[in-house]
């Protein structure tokens, strides 16, 4: 741990950011360029936001990276899981990558990915705590169980290369995280993996090895998500599928604004608001509460949101 | 204070609910009926939700009343402003009316109204605190300053009949309440009035007189909002106005899900979720952050959101 390690993480986030942008641009096939914005944060740091809108495949996709540092109220630091109870004032450093892609077609699922590295230092600058967090999850509108299986299987393979406990633990963690508790515990999607507070010693791995794991997750979408986009991209759909997609996106908005800790952290620490809220869909609906007929694709999708073992 | 007073408030909320439904139905002119749902809450109480969708004037309008009672964590009671620090367990009773109307035309402003009566009792049932709250506010998409003036003038006239301090105080309170603090303090709309924790003795008025005030606010929309709908209903508009309306509705969603205390209270106390979230617009958008040309109607609307004295 130290400046050298931190700089290597910053570089790897930067490289992952370029890769992720290239992946989305390639999957989009539209020739529409990302709009890139560089922003700086009062109090330290800044980031690069890349946004694609009205693409051929993606109605809206955002890929952001940021490096932010500053002073953190100990209360907020503790909510983030930092081991800093003795500190009166904590300094924080965080660098991360976030990706959210909202496809136009309801047959193509929405995907989200985030990886981040946190450090907490005392006022003298000495690092007191450091950890990785992240994850990726899939949010389909149309129920294709085989897509969920593919996504989870690819994640399991990636996780297994680093530690056999990772996939089962992080998959369960994800099932417990992306929940609209105010909607009878309905899940945002079919999950994936979610992890946080991975410190040196986690599963016997040093911070270097955890970095390698997180970097692998940061580039997993080309195999976990790319093939799903390719096989659903040209599937025809109608107005009913589109309307259901807009309603599901309403639930996505609810989760992100009411429950998501990352969004909350962004709103409270003064990150660039357009980047914090880039995860919101381009268009979302709140139709009157419908009753979906048993066996309809809408009812089958809702059943698919119940957590289950997608791979053995 | 007591069961007799409480019952009179319940009756008046019920009467206001019918009036409000009739007003929206009449303003809609579409002949589309409200869909009515009666719901009960586990733990005590229930309500009546009336929802109009795809009307001639209103894309979505909800008018709800509820009577809810139960046990409240003292922490939550204190956040509501209750004077109950000595209680270990508080019982609460609340009855209220909520109305949100989202017009289809961007030339017609969205309106919101709420009135409510709260009681806090100790475990033996003795009432320890009681107060009224409520308010109404206007959220235009298209900048017609004369509509804001009409709305505020009508509210001032209604308030002045009860106490000269009410309009100036409650107007300022409203300006400070409906704020997207995470969006550089941008206001949700052009305001109106907002008040809470009005107890017996407020401005020298007894609870009976406060009830009369709140009942007047509960029926103010026929004069405060009705004429605005009538004069804007047939104004033509284009796709640009519609797109701006959807983006403004995105901000409406952000306020309600991130900041609104009433929504938070509903989500935490297990009220019927469809009723709590009936305030959300039927359709909302998060377009890429646009720069509006100086003098454009969009820029003029944003200027109109800056708080000011609409009536002298």
Which short descriptors sum up this protein?
alpha+beta, two-stranded antiparallel sheet, seven-stranded antiparallel sheet, 11 helices, 312 residues, homodimer, oxygen-dependent coproporphyrinogen oxidase
Structural description of this entry:
The structure is a homodimer of 312-residue chains. With 312 residues, the first copy, chain A, is an alpha+beta fold. Chain A has one domain (3-304): Coproporphyrinogen III oxidase, aerobic (oxygen-dependent coproporphyrinogen oxidase). Chain A is 40% helix and 27% strand. Chain A contains 11 helices and 10 strands. Chain A has helices at residues 3-28, 74-79, 145-160, 166-177, 207-218, 221-224, 226-232, 239-259, 261-269, 273-276, 297-304, and strands at 35-40, 45-53, 58-72, 90-103, 110-121, 127-139, 179-180, 186-187, 191-198, 283-285. Chain A has a 7-stranded antiparallel sheet. A two-stranded antiparallel ribbon of chain A has the order 7-8. In chain A, a hairpin with a 5-residue loop joins β5 and β6. In chain A, α1 (3-28) packs parallel to α5 (207-218) and α3 (145-160) packs across α4 (166-177). The radius of gyration of chain A is 19 Å and the shape is globular. At the A-B interface, α8, α10 and β10 of A face α8, α10 and β10 of B.
Q: Estimate what percentage of residues of chain A fall within beta strands.
A: 25-35%
Gyration radius from CA atoms of chain A, angstroms: 19 Å
Domains of chain A (count): 1
Question: Any idea what the CATH superfamily of chain A is called?
Answer: Coproporphyrinogen III oxidase, aerobic
The averaged pLDDT of chain A comes out at 93
Strand order of the largest sheet of chain A: 1-2-3-4-5-6-9
Given this structure, which CATH class of chain A is correct? Alpha Beta
Which oligomeric form is depicted? homodimer
Q: Biggest sheet of chain A, open or closed, and with what strands and sense?
A: 7 strands, antiparallel
Strand elements of chain A, count:
10
**CA distance, first residue to last residue of chain A:** 36 Å
Envelope shape of chain A: globular
Q: Determine the structural class of chain A based on helices, strands and strand pairing.
A: alpha+beta
DSSP helical segment count of chain A: 11
| Proportion in helices of chain A | 40-55%
Order of helices and strands of chain A: HEEEHEEEHHEEEHHHHHHEH
> What is the level-2 CATH architecture name of chain A?
3-Layer(aba) Sandwich
Poorly predicted runs of chain A: none
CATH fold name of chain A, please?
oxygen-dependent coproporphyrinogen oxidase
């Amino acid at each position: 741990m130290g400046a050298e390690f931190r700089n290597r993480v910053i570089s790897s986030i930067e490289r992952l950011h370029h890769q992720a942008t290239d992946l989305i641009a390639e999957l989009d096939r539209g020739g529409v360029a990302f709009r890139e914005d560089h922003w700086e944060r009062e109090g330290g740091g800044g980031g690069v936001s890349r946004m694609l809108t009205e693409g051929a495949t993606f109605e809206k996709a955002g890929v952001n990276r940021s490096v932010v540092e500053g002073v953190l109220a100990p209360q907020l630091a503790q909510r983030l899981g930092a081991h800093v109870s003795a500190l009166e004032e904590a300094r924080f450093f965080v660098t991360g990558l976030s990706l959210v892609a909202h496809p136009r077609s309801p047959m193509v699922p929405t995907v989200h990915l985030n990886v981040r590295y946190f450090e907490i230092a005392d006022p003298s600058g000495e690092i007191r705590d450091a950890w990785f967090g992240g994850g990726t999850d899939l949010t389909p509108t149309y129920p294709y169980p085989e897509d969920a299986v593919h996504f989870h299987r690819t994640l399991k393979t990636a996780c297994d290369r680093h530690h056999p406990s990772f996939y089962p633990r992080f998959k369960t963690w994800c099932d417990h995280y992306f929940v609209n508790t105010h909607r009878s515990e309905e899940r945002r999607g079919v999950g994936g993996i979610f992890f946080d507070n991975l410190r040196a010693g986690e599963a016997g791995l040093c911070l270097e090895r955890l970095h390698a794991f997180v970097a692998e997750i940061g580039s997993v979408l080309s195999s976990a998500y790319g093939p799903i986009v390719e096989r659903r991209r040209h599937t025809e759909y109608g107005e009913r599928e589109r309307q259901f997609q807009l309603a599901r996106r309403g639930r996505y908005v609810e989760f992100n604004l009411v429950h998501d800790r990352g969004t909350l952290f962004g709103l409270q620490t003064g990150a660039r608001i357009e980047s914090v809220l880039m995860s919101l869909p381009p268009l979302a609906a709140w139709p009157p509460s419908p009753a979906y007929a048993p066996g309809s694709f809408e009812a089958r999708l809702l059943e698919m949101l119940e957590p289950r073992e997608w791979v053995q």
